[in-house]
User: What shape does this take?
Amino acid sequence: MTEPIDPTTLTVGVLGGTGAQGKGLALRWAKAGIPVIIGSRAAERAEASAAEYRELTGTDHVRGADNATCAAEADVVLAAVPWESHAETLKGLVEPLRGKILIDCVNPIGFDKKGPYPLPVEEGSVAQQAEQLLPESRVTAAFHNVSAVLLADLDQDEVDCDVLVLGDDREATDVVRALADAIPGVRGVFGGRLRNAYQVECLTANLIAINRRYKVHAGIKITDLG
Amino acid sequence: MTEPIDPTTLTVGVLGGTGAQGKGLALRWAKAGIPVIIGSRAAERAEASAAEYRELTGTDHVRGADNATCAAEADVVLAAVPWESHAETLKGLVEPLRGKILIDCVNPIGFDKKGPYPLPVEEGSVAQQAEQLLPESRVTAAFHNVSAVLLADLDQDEVDCDVLVLGDDREATDVVRALADAIPGVRGVFGGRLRNAYQVECLTANLIAINRRYKVHAGIKITDLG
Assistant: This one.
């Protein structure tokens, strides 16, 4: 028997918390009663976003910090930085992230006139790059396929989708699934080992293509799970 | 205004129609009134499977042939061969597939003690390999993520999932979506250009991981599409 995980006992840090995906998740977690630290390269920018998120959620447990402080003071850390600055950001955070669960939600996707397309990742996936850069952290991958627009629209009580949670550390993926389940409408589903992260990271390109064709904010659900 | 597509006016060929995915789709299409030609390397083996499928579906419009005859006589052709024989099979079918819609559903996935994992594909994706080998065919990619087990279980009236249909030829993807819609419970959804096929092909590894963890036959649905 394992104790159920109460995500409100965890402080979640959001590296790149001023961007769209980081904002959406920070808002939903704050609203669910989870303390959040917004990280950014510049502490002032992080604090400005944190003030905005406190206002939007009507809560007081969102604060801002530079990325290093964010990583050091949080229990679980989400990497929501652009793919272009992923490696550089994590390289500077080896110490503060030691022993901690890192959730990587970064999509290696490029855009041209024909729309979105997957970018190659030498390490196999963005999450595996994180694993190589942070060998003493507990790296997971999740939250790639949930619409930032729907997350940030707090007028919508629920965000109806599943979040695939990948990782080789069962306990870490259970914590991340609890953080997914904390968002109304969202269900965290174990989605495989980290070596299966690339296709989940890149599936967002297909969701963007669907959004353009059908004028929606697509996500995914896993069928037959009840 | 375009005419709605009536899939029962098309004869569908299934290369590798004796395998699990080919069988499941052939059964569902036959049951939906669509004439099906089962292709295999050996015509006798194809005819033996066709006889079984006629029996299972209670229909008479399933027949078997060697792959070349299957490709020549069908209007639309599904490639459901193992990844290992994908290139070799298609190389021999350039002529019979000229001008035709090819639907590629092949998953480039390996297995080891730790489970399923994606295999690299030099051309970017299996579907793009098909496109390179068949420059005068209309290559699409679809039906990667639908459970062969559920397809083949005809006691289940419906297979509740979406099928992502990828391709750069709008009319071809519309035909393939109609072939998806012909299966009760299934919805064909445009999923992007062919260059976005790899992640859809490999997502089946995640679904297999989910099947193992949760003891299900997982598929996917796209949310927010109504």
